[in-house]
C-alpha cells in the first residue's frame, strides 16, 4: 500500500528562521581550516570495541590516508581502554588490568602498543599517523582512575617535574578523587577529581600536557557530558588545551539527556559534543536521532562557538560496514544490520544536520557500497558548507495496520508521562513539591502548571539517604504505569546517569530508572527551593513531559529537511520512517513562502536531480514528489532561477 502525504512547508510548520542567501567564498579543500567545519575521521570503537592493537590501528590509518583523506576524513582515533592489558580476565567492567605510570596517569598497554615501552606513550604512533598526513586522536575518561585512587599515587607538578606539594605536604590521588562521583556506567573505572583544589587541577594539567607531548590532535573526553555532566572538569580541561602551542580538537561524550539549554553552557569550551546515547546499527537507533537533530537546528546551534573554532552537535559515529558488538572482547566479525535504505537515511540526516562524520566500520574490509556512501560528494558538500539547515516539516501518522489495531483497542489510548533529565536552567524542570502521602510519610510530586488539583500527579516516594545530608532525598519510583513496569515487584530507583553504555534506542525507551543499589548515582537527589529536583552527581534536574501513547500501536511518519548550498542550490530531503513505501511530495509554491525571492511559483523555475535514484529533472514539476522506500530517503539538489 502506498500512502500519499503532501508536505506544505509553509502551512504545516511554524518557521521563525528566514533563509539568507549570502554565498560563502569558495575555497579548495587544501586550504580549508577544518576546525571551522564539522570534524571528519575514523574511530576504532564500532569495529574493535576496546581490543585494537598498534598493528591494527596503523594498518587502518594507512587505509584512511589512501582512500578517505582526500574526502576530508583526517582524524584517526583510538577509542577507550587503550591502557588495558588484553589478558585473560580483562574485559570492559574489570578492575586491575590497566597500565598507569608513577603519577597515576593512564599509558598505552605495552602488550597491545609495543612502541609505548620505555615511557614513550603514543609518541611513535602519533609520528606514524602524522607522516601519513593525518591527525591522531585518543579517547579518555573523566578525572582519575580507580586503579590510581586505590594505589594512592602521587600527583605530578609539571612546573617542577616532581611530586606536587602544598601546605607543607605531598598530595596524592586519594586527596583529589571523589569516589562518590564515579562514572555510573564504569564504576570500577574512573571518578571525578576535585577541581576546586589546586592539586586536582595539577593532576588534570599533567594528563593533558602529556597527551600534547605525545602528539595527540584530538581528545574524546567521556563521562563528562549529558547525564554525566561535569562542567567544572570540562571548563578546566578546555582552559589547559587553549593554552597549548597547537590546537587539539576537544570532543565530549556521552549524549544522554542532552538538550540545547545544557549545550549552551559549553559556549567556547569544546569543538563537538554528543547529543545522543550510543548509536549502533539498528533502525531504532537511527530513528531516535530525528528529534534531537531537529531541536539543535531549531536552536541555531549548528555551528556554535567552540574552542579555537566552531562547535558541533554530534549524532555519534557511523556504524556501517564490518563491525563488532558493544562491550565485547572481540574485533570486527559481522556486517552492519542496517539495510542500504536505512544506511542512506542515516548518512543523509547526519549530513543535513551537519553532524561530525566519524566512520566506525573496519576500513581494512570496507566494501564499495559503504565506501561510495561515506564519500558521496553531495553529502560531504552539504555537511561542510550548507546553511539554513532545518527540519522543514514533520507529519506523524498511523499506518493502516496500526489504525485498525487502535480501533480494536478503543479505550486503551492514553497519555503517559515520561521522566528524563535536563539542565537545571531549563524552565521545564520546575514543578516539583513535597506532598503528604499519609500521616507518617511524604512524597515528591510533579504537577504541570495549570493542572487541576483533582488530577493524579506523578509522584516519587522518599527513602532515607545513606550518603547525602538530611536535606537530600533518595527517591524511588512509584509502582505506576506512568513511571515504570515491574513484573517481579522490585522497586526501581531514579538514576542520575545510566549504569552501562546504552544505545539511543534504549535511552529513548527507559532513560531514568534501574534496580535500587544505594550508590551515589541514585542517592544524591535534592529538592531545591525553585521547585527543581537536582542530582548532585550530574548537576542535572528531573523533567517530566507528556508522552502520547497507544500501547502497542506503531506510530510512524515522514520527515523533511531543507538547506541552502554555498552556490545558491537548494537541498530538500524526504525521510520515510514508515514500514511501507510512501509517496512524499512538496509544492514549490509552498516552499517559496519560506524561500522568498526564489521565484519557485513557476514550474520551470527549477531544475535538479535526486541523488539516490540518479533521476534528473530538466524542469521540476509541481509538486516535487517521489515514492520513498520504507526507512529510506530521497535527496533533491535544486537550482532555481
Automatic annotation (TrEMBL):
Keywords for this protein: Disulfide bond, Glycosidase, Hydrolase, Signal
Gene Ontology terms, MF aspect: alpha-galactosidase activity
One Pfam family matching this protein: Melibiase_C
Signal peptide start and end residues: 1-20
Domain of life, per lineage: Eukaryota
EC number: 3.2.1.22
GO aspect biological process, one term: carbohydrate metabolic process
Transmembrane feature ranges: none
Enzyme class: hydrolase
InterPro entries to which the protein is assigned, alphabetical: Aldolase_TIM (IPR013785), GH (IPR017853), Glyco_hydro_27 (IPR002241), Glyco_hydro_b (IPR013780), Melibiase_C (IPR041233), Ricin_B-like_lectins (IPR035992)
Catalyses which reaction(s): Hydrolysis of terminal, non-reducing alpha-D-galactose residues in alpha-D-galactosides, including galactose oligosaccharides, galactomannans and galactolipids
Domain (Alpha galactosidase C-terminal) ranges: 558-638
Gene3D superfamilies reported in the protein's UniProt record: 2.80.10.50, Aldolase class I (3.20.20.70), Golgi alpha-mannosidase II (2.60.40.1180)
PANTHER family per UniProt: ALPHA-GALACTOSIDASE (PTHR11452:SF42), ALPHA-GALACTOSIDASE/ALPHA-N-ACETYLGALACTOSAMINIDASE (PTHR11452)
Family: Belongs to the glycosyl hydrolase 27 family.
Name of the protein in question: Alpha-galactosidase
Organism: Linum tenue
Lineage: Eukaryota, Viridiplantae, Streptophyta, Embryophyta, Tracheophyta
Amino acid at each position: 500500500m502506498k500512502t500519499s502525504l503532501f508536505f506544505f512547508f509553509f502551512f504545516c510548520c511554524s518557521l521563525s528562521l528566514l533563509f539568507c542567501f549570502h554565498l560563502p567564498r569558495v575555497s579548495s579543500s587544501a586550504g580549508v581550516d577544518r576546525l571551522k567545519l564539522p570534524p571528519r575521521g575514523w574511530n576504532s570503537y564500532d569495529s574493535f570495541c576496546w581490543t585494537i592493537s598498534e598493528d591494527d590501528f596503523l594498518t587502518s590509518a594507512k587505509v584512511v590516508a589512501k582512500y578517505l583523506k582526500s574526502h576530508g576524513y583526517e582524524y584517526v582515533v583510538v577509542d577507550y581502554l587503550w591502557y588495558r592489558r588484553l589478558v585473560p580476565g580483562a574485559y570492559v567492567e574489570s578492575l586491575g588490568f590497566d597500565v598507569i605510570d608513577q603519577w597515576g596517569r593512564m599509558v598505552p598497554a605495552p602488550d597491545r602498543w609495543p612502541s609505548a615501552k620505555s615511557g614513550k606513550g603514543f609518541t611513535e604512533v602519533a609520528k606514524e599517523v602524522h607522516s601519513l598526513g593525518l591527525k591522531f586522536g585518543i579517547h579518555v575518561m573523566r578525572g582519575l582512575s580507580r586503579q590510581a585512587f586505590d594505589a594512592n599515587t602521587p600527583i605530578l607538578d609539571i612546573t617542577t617535574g616532581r611530586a606536587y606539594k602544598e601546605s607543607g605536604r605531598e598530595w596524592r590521588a586519594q586527596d583529589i578523587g571523589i569516589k562518590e562521583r564515579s562514572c555510573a556506567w564504569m564504576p570500577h573505572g574512573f571518578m571525578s577529581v576535585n577541581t576546586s583544589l589546586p592539586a586536582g587541577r595539577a593532576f588534570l594539567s599533567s594528563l593533558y600536557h602529556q597527551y600534547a607531548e605525545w602528539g595527540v590532535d584530538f581528545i574524546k573526553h567521556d563521562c563528562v557530558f549529558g547525564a554525566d555532566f561535569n562542567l567544572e572538569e570540562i571548563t578546566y580541561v578546555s582552559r589547559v588545551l587553549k593554552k597549548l602551542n597547537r590546537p587539539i580538537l576537544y570532543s565530549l561524550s556521552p549524549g544522554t539527556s542532552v538538550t540545547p539549554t545544557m549545550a549552551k553552557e559549553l559556549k567556547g569550551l569544546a569543538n563537538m559534543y554528543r547529543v545522543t546515547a550510543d548509536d549502533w546499527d539498528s533502525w531504532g537507533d537511527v530513528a531516535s536521532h530525528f528529534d534531537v537533530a531537529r531541536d539543535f537546528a531549531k536552536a541555531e546551534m549548528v555551528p556554535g562557538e567552540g574552542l579555537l573554532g566552531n562547535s558541533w552537535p554530534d549524532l555519534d559515529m557511523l556504524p556501517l560496514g564490518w563491525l563488532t558488538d558493544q562491550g565485547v572482547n572481540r574485533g570486527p566479525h559481522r556486517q552492519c544490520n542496517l539495510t542500504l535504505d536505512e544506511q542512506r537515511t542515516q548518512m543523509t540526516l547526519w549530513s543535513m544536520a551537519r553532524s561530525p562524520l566519524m566512520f566506525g566500520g573496519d576500513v581494512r574490509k570496507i566494501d564499495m557500497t559503504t565506501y561510495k556512501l561515506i564519500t558521496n560528494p553531495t553529502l560531504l558538500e552539504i555537511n561542510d558548507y550548507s546553511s539554513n539547515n532545518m527540519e522543514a516539516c514533520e507529519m506523524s501518522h498511523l499506518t493502516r495496520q496500526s489504525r485498525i489495531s487502535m480501533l480494536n483497542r478503543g479505550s486503551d489510548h492514553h497519555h503517559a508521562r515520561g521522566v528524563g533529565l535536563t539542565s537545571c536552567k531549563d524552565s521545564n524542570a520546575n514543578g516539583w513539591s513535597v506532598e503528604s502521602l499519609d500521616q507518617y510519610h511524604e512524597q515528591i510530586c510533579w504537577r504541570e502548571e495549570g493542572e487541576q488539583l483533582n488530577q493524579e500527579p506523578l509522584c516519587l516516594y522518599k527513602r532515607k539517604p545513606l550518603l547525602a545530608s538530611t536535606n537530600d532525598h533518595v527517591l524511588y519510583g512509584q509502582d505506576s504505569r506512568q513511571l515504570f513496569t515491574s513484573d517481579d515487584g522490585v522497586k526501581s530507583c531514579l538514576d542520575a546517569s545510566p549504569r552501562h553504555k546504552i544505545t539511543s534506542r534504549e535511552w529513548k525507551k527507559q532513560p531514568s530508572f534501574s534496580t535500587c543499589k544505594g550508590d551515589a548515582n541514585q542517592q544524591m537527589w535534592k529538592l531545591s527551593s525553585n521547585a527543581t529536583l537536582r542530582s548532585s552527581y550530574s548537576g542535572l534536574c528531573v523533567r517530566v513531559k507528556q508522552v502520547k501513547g497507544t500501547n502497542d500501536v506503531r506510530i510512524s511518519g515522514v520527515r523533511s529537511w531543507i538547506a541552502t548550498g554555498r552556490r545558491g542550490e537548494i537541498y530538500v530531503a524526504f525521510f520515510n520512517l514508515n514500514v511501507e513505501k510512501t509517496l512524499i511530495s512538496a509544492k514549490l509554491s509552498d516552499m517559496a513562502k519560506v524561500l522568498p525571492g526564489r521565484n519557485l511559483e513557476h514550474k520551470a523555475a527549477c531544475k535538479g536531480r535526486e541523488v539516490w535514484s540518479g533521476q534528473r529533472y530538466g524542469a521540476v514539476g509541481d509538486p516535487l514528489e517521489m515514492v520513498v522506500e520504507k526507512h529510506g530517503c530521497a535527496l533533491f539538489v535544486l537550482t532555481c532561477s
